[in-house]
Write a structure and sequence with these properties.
single chain; alpha+beta; seven-stranded mixed β-sheet; five-stranded antiparallel β-sheet; 6 helices
Length: 297
């Protein structure tokens, strides 16, 4: 299914939930695509197009395909009201009710930044999303290395969002973001999940939330690009560390090849790797893998 097919797929008669009408849940109004374009697409700015589709399998898959076919320029934004085959890291699947969150992908082409520094893009996106949501939703957010957004529900730390980066042809990177906005307890896919609403957000209006996140991403991407991808010079490394809930905790890193390492997370290095201080006195950088928090910060 193409994005345009998806855009026309869920239209039915108003108030006809059997047809998947976009108006069947008035507590979750649709995004205003025209207003988003007016607020985000400007001459000299990063965002070149904003497309909103009603339903698709994966915004990342769709935007990667468009980029590889030469049909999307840097700054293309694809937003879905509902995803039916969304993916996280390690090809994990997840789903959420229509219009219950922010589900979008963006295409970036950081040609002037050395490829060796592109590993910072998911972390940069995490900083931008957390910053934008903190400003617009009034929710204290934190980052779990490498790509999870955490909120506090009651006194419990829960995952409310995630980020997935994928290569998109020669010189392109698609960054997908999923954030639970209005999910209720009975809608959570797992008990450890959360949402902005459950965390006490002052606003769950997705239009200003999305604008705030994309403006924050434009700001951080601009800083990073101007610094040639140097995370320290861009202020990115320091900001990520300040907002990272993983640092200062005892964690278990589950690594490729069925190997695991336990230690205290002491730093995020210049390559974006998590540095663990193990019990035998060795500092081991982790560039990929699952991180399990074993002890509160």
């Amino acid at each position: 299914m193409t994005p345009r097919d998806a855009a026309d797929d869920s239209h039915g008669k108003p108030g006809d939930p059997a047809r998947g009408s976009r108006w069947s849940d008035l507590d979750r109004p649709p995004l205003n695509a025209a207003a988003l374009r007016r607020g985000l697409v400007r001459e000299g700015g990063l965002w070149t197009e904003v497309q909103v589709v009603q339903r698709t399998g994966s915004t990342n898959a769709d935007l990667v395909a468009r980029a590889e076919a030469g049909e999307a320029a840097e700054g293309a934004v694809l937003v879905a009201e509902e995803q039916t085959a969304a993916r996280g890291r390690l090809d994990r699947r997840w789903s959420a009710p229509a219009r219950s969150g922010l589900f979008f992908s963006v295409l970036l082409r950081p040609a002037e930044v050395p490829v060796a520094r592109w590993g910072w893009l998911p972390l940069l996106t995490g900083v931008a999303v957390a910053t934008g949501l903190s400003r617009s939703a009034g929710v204290d957010t934190a980052l779990k290395w490498p790509n999870d957004l955490l909120v506090t529900v009651g006194h419990e730390e829960r995952k409310a969002g995630g980020i997935l980066a994928e290569g998109a042809g020669d010189g392109g990177v698609v960054l997908g973001v999923g954030v639970n906005v209005t999910l209720r307890e009975d809608e959570l896919p797992v008990p450890q999940a959360g949402s902005l609403a459950l965390a006490g957000a002052v606003s769950t209006d997705r239009d200003p939330l999305l604008r705030a996140v994309l403006r924050s991403l434009e700001e951080w991407y601009g800083r990073w690009r101007e610094a040639g991808g140097d995370p320290a010079a861009a202020g990115l490394q320091e900001t990520y560390a300040a907002g990272c809930a993983t640092l200062g905790r005892k964690v278990r890193a589950e690594l490729p090849g069925d190997r695991s390492v336990v230690g205290e997370a002491v730093a995020v290095d210049g390559d974006g790797r998590l540095v663990l201080a193990t019990e035998n006195g060795v500092q081991e950088p982790v560039g990929a893998g699952d991180i399990v928090h074993l002890r509160p910060a």
